[in-house]
Amino acid sequence: MFLAIARWVxxxxxxxxxxxxxxxxxxxxTPSRHAxxxxxxTYYADSGNRHKEQIxxxxxxxxxxxxxxxxxxxxxxxxxxxxxxxxxxxAAIASGAAFIALATASHAVGTAVSxxxxxFGSSFRVDPNTARLLAGLSFGLFAMxxxxxxxxxxxxxxxxxxxxxxxxWLAWLSVVxxxxxxxxxxxxLTSFLVLLWIVALSAYLVLPQRAIAPxxx
Length: 217
Known about the structure:
By secondary structure, the chain is an all-alpha fold. The protein has helices at residues 2-8, 12-26, 37-45, 47-82, 87-110, 112-120, 128-163, 168-183, 191-206. The protein has one domain (2-206). It contains 9 helices and no strands. The longest helix is centred in the N-terminal third of the chain and has 36 residues, at 47-82.
């Protein structure tokens, strides 16, 4: 039974991406950066909006668990291909750990107002500028998480080209994901390139193991 479960663990990257997309959908009505003060106070006064953010918080927590399982599978594939001392593999996995830590922190900061309203009740007053400050901090952490994801993708691409642990199309997709991660500070939608890369990589790892050429001496 445990072997059967372990067989599908690499696919947890797909679950991660699905949970992230659902969570983003739940928070799609968050006020924009140009919204008026009343838009912020009205948004958080609506219990439905707060509950959506809290559900999204839970989903992101689950997504983080799934990503760490995926990261373990990725490390196994990269380390087998690179061989000891596996320096590039270490860089990829460390970058992946930094990515998920920053991403979950970003979401925790972004939902802080909703949790505060629910926790403190009527004694808590929503200040629009404080809400904007937390939203800005949340975006900053998210942007930093994408830089870490770019480092992870770049290290993976390096090993894919050098050892052929992954096919050429997946190596090039890793390069595209790295570029997308860096550009997210200018174009937020490029973060979906990182999600697409994680899904493709996760799906490939679920497939039966392919023979990997031994690392060069």
